Amino acid sequence: MGPTPPQPDENTSLGPYWRALSICLVLLAVYIAAILTLHTETATRSTAPPWYAWVRFPKVHTRPETVFLVFPAIVYAVWLGVIRRMRSKPLSDAIFLPLACVAVFAMNVTTALTDGSVDAISKPFNWGGSEYFSDVGAVRGVATFLHGYVANLYHYSIHTRTHPPGAVLFLYFVARIIQPGVRTAAWSAVAVTATGVVPFFLLGRRIAGEKIAAIATALYVVTPSLVIYGATSMDGVFLVSLLWSMYFLYRAVEERGIGIAIVAGILLAISFSLSYVAVCIVALIFVCSVLEVAKDRGEFWPAVRAFVLCGSVVLAWFAAAYALSGFNYFACLRASRYYDRYSMRTSTMSFGRYLDISVCNLIAFLIGVGFAAIVLWWKQTSGSLKSPRNWSKADRFNAATVICVIGFSFAKLFTHETERIWLFFIPPALLGAAAWIARTRGGSQRLLEWAMHLMFVQTWVFQLLLFTIW
Question: For residue 419, with 0-12 CB atoms within 10 Å meaning exposed, 13-18 middle and 19 or more buried, which class applies?
Fold first, then answer.
């Protein structure tokens, strides 16, 4: 990713990374002190990101479930052993990717267990009036459900009101194919979520190479937001579809093949059916394409053709849904947007409140990436900015990620809780962090383990403090 900087030797000092980490924590402390002093919505609102829940100083109780905190540590020790083993004898993708899926599944589940044993997995799916599962009973035939979806939107649960019907239909098909019940729904979501590491690895390998993709995958397993929400949120299911969409859309632009563009369009249509944030995927690849065109103008028409083909497939998908069931996706988007603005009171707001929510979104996202990964991502990004003329395609993808994260933070499209909604932005950030680790040559294993240790500890401590059931 860009020109190679002077390479440190085997005894690379971790001092600069500890100092950068300390600066992150100091800045976070200053931010928290500011919102507490100013009594902003982020500091007082009960639905502000869970990362800030402890700002309100909740009472701490010792619970029997605390004993489950040992299980994530066991999973981490095993995963660390796999990563160390790969240093001496690399594993084939056919072995490494299934191991990574199992590691993600085990880490997500054991972390969730700390919030009430096995029931913690299904608890978030069973909140009547709030979660998608409570609306599965409303599906009395897919076509009928889709036909009345917009008209009945405000009779559904809170999250269903702000999303297209894909999440409810996913849980409906799980009930039909496997068996009904909240536990089946929850465990199916966990299993699907664990597979997200596969498109992430494939995307990373295509963009930055095998080594960086493997390092990023090592970090993926212990990334705070991906772990804490990976077994207790439908956003993990959305993540899988979004990552596959990202991978194939990137391939469609790069390879110029019609077949790949059609596949990318189908996956994007599925992603749009699950969550409106799929627009962020399109924006990310679009910005990346613009940066590619700026380097090589010969890439302009191939990129345009890829986006036109993908967009045509998506529109055809929505047209078919309307023709077959009467479901109007754009009417659904307007209704969801209206409800979100009404419930969150964001139709009109002061500049101070806008700034509070926007900065909260950005910081919540960065915390969820992991402090250690943020330090490494910052070093990679700042290093590449010194010589933009020598950027590789991985540098351009990283720059597009930074632009989109900052842009969407302040775009007024989202309210609080983006640390869940933006799970798909975390993997590209991990690629940037992994690229910096790969640069350190002899010290790369030491730096990787430093990052893995800290990210796991952050995940573990946050789960201990929050006992989040999100």
Answer: buried
Q: Which of 422, 410, 418 is nearest to 278 (CA)?
A: 422
| Both structure tokens of 260 | 């790949």
The two most distant CA atoms of the chain are separated, in Å, by 65
b/e per residue 254-290 (b: at least 16 CB within 10 A)? beeeeebbbbbbbbbbbbbbbbbbbebbbbbbbbbbe
Q: Is the pLDDT of residue 8 over 50?
A: no
Q: Residues of 220-237 as b/e, b for ≥16 C-beta within 10 angstroms?
A: bbbbbbbbbbbbbbbbbb
- Helix H or strand E encompassing 105: helix 93-113
Higher pLDDT, 191 or 232: 191
Number of neighbours of residue 292 by Cβ within 10 angstroms: 22
pLDDT at 74 over 70: yes
CB 264 within 8 A of CB 252: yes
Asked if pLDDT for residue 409 goes beyond 70, the answer is yes
337: how many CB neighbours lie within 10 A of its CB?
13
What is the 3-state composition of the chain as percent helix, strand, coil, each rounded to the nearest 5?
A: 75, 0, 25
Averaged over 375-384, what is the pLDDT? 94
List, in order, residues 6 or more apart from 123 with CB less than 8 Å away.
115, 116, 232, 469
Q: What is the pLDDT of residues 121-162, one digit of tens each?
A: 888 888 767 789 999 999 999 999 999 999 999 899 988 998
Q: Model's pTM, two decimal places?
A: 0.91
Listed in sequence order, the DSSP H helices in 61-92 are 70-88
Phi and psi of 81, rounded to 5°? -60, -40
CA distance 327 to 139: 14
- 238-254 pLDDT, tens digit per residue, is 999 999 999 999 999 98
Residue whose tokens read 């979104």:
361
Q: Please tell me the distance from the alpha carbon of residue 313 to that of residue 263, in angstroms, as a whole number.
A: 9
pLDDT reported for residue 375: 96
Task: Give, in order, the Cα–Cα distances in Å from 268 to each of 238, 257, 262, 314, 357.
Answer: 11, 16, 10, 7, 28
User: Considering the chain, what is the average pLDDT of its residues?
Assistant: 87
